[in-house]
Design a protein that fits this description.
Layout lengths: L2 H23 L24 H10 L16 H16 L10 H14 L16 H8 L16 H14 L7 H11 L5
Helix pairs in contact: 2-4, 6-7
The structure holds heme C (2 copies).
Length: 192
C-alpha cells in the first residue's frame, strides 16, 4: 500500500477519535472555547456596571469574555440570540449552564448595544461608492462596516492598523499598502 495513503488514514482516524472525545466532554461540564480577542472582567467598558457583571458571569461560561465593542449596536441583539440558542442547546446535556432571566437578558442586550459601534446605515450614499468593496472585504469577516462619522477622520488610520493586527493574529491575509490607503480614505472620507 502506498505510504501517503496510510498516512492519510492515520490522520483521518486521529481527527475522528479526537472529535468524538470532545463530543463526550460536553455532558460532563461546560467545555470552553477560546475567542481570539477576549478580555478580562476589569477590561470591560464600565466594569462596575450591572451589564458588565452579567456579561462576565453569563458570557464567560463557554468562552473568554468578548469585547462589547466588537459588534455594531445593530448586530448585537441577533448575536445575543445566537448565544442564547447555544445555551439552550447545551443546557440539554450540561445542566450547569446558567441562562439569564428576561430582565437580565434586557440588561445584557442594552449593555452590548450601548458599547457597540454604529454601523454604516443601509441607506447611506457611501454604500454606492466602489471603495466600499475593499472595506467589506477586509472588515466584514469579523463585524459590520462601521459608520465613518463616529470617529474623527484622523483616528481611522490607528483603528485600521489595530484591525489589521487582529487579521494577522487570526492568520488572515494583511492589507497591502494600497488597500490600507483605500480603506482609510473611505473611512476618513477623503476622496482621491
Ligand atoms: C452556551 C455557551 C455560550 C454562551 C453562554 C455564550 N456563548 Fe458566545 N459563543 C459560543 C460558541 C459555541 C461560539 C462559537 C460559534 C459561534 O460563533 O456562534 C461563540 C462565539 C462568540 C463570539 C464570536 C463570534 C461572533 O459572533 O463574533 C462572540 C462575540 C460571542 N460568542 C459573544 C457572546 C456573548 C456576548 C455572550 C453572552 C451574552 C455569549 N457569547 C455567551 C457559545 C456561547
Ligand atoms: C479579525 C477580526 C476583525 C477584523 C477583520 C476587523 N475588526 Fe474591527 N474590531 C474587532 C475587534 C475584536 C474589536 C473590538 C476591540 C477593539 O476595538 O480593538 C473591533 C472593533 C472595531 C471598532 C470599534 C472601535 C471602538 O473603539 O469602538 C471599529 C470602528 C472597527 N472595529 C472597525 C474596523 C474596520 C474599519 C475594519 C476593516 C478595515 C475592521 N474593524 C476589521 C475585530 C476585527
Amino acid at each position: 500500500m502506498n505510504l501517503s495513503f496510510l498516512r492519510l488514514i492515520m490522520v483521518v482516524s486521529i481527527l475522528f477519535c479526537s472529535g468524538s472525545s470532545t463530543a463526550g466532554e460536553w455532558g460532563k461540564g461546560i467545555k470552553r472555547i477560546v475567542l481570539p480577542f477576549g478580555l478580562t472582567a476589569n477590561q470591560l467598558p464600565d466594569p462596575q456596571s450591572k451589564g458588565a457583571a452579567l456579561l462576565a458571569s453569563y458570557c464567560g461560561q463557554c468562552h473568554n469574555l468578548p469585547s462589547p465593542k466588537m459588534h455594531s449596536t445593530g448586530d448585537w441583539p441577533m448575536r445575543f440570540e445566537k448565544m442564547m440558542d447555544h445555551a439552550m442547546l447545551m443546557a440539554g446535556t450540561s445542566p450547569d449552564v446558567k441562562i439569564p432571566v428576561d430582565k437580565e437578558k434586557k440588561e445584557l442586550v442594552s449593555y452590548l448595544e450601548k458599547n457597540g459601534f454604529r454601523e454604516l446605515p443601509a441607506n447611506s450614499p457611501l454604500r454606492g461608492e466602489p471603495q466600499v468593496f475593499n472595506v467589506i472585504w477586509f472588515c466584514s469577516v469579523c463585524h459590520a462596516v462601521p459608520d465613518p462619522d463616529q470617529f474623527p477622520a484622523k483616528e481611522w488610520g490607528k483603528i485600521v492598523d489595530r484591525m489589521n493586527s487582529y487579521r494577522k493574529k487570526q492568520g488572515r491575509e494583511e492589507m497591502s499598502n494600497s488597500d490600507r490607503k483605500v480603506v482609510i480614505n473611505f473611512l476618513a472620507k477623503e476622496r482621491q
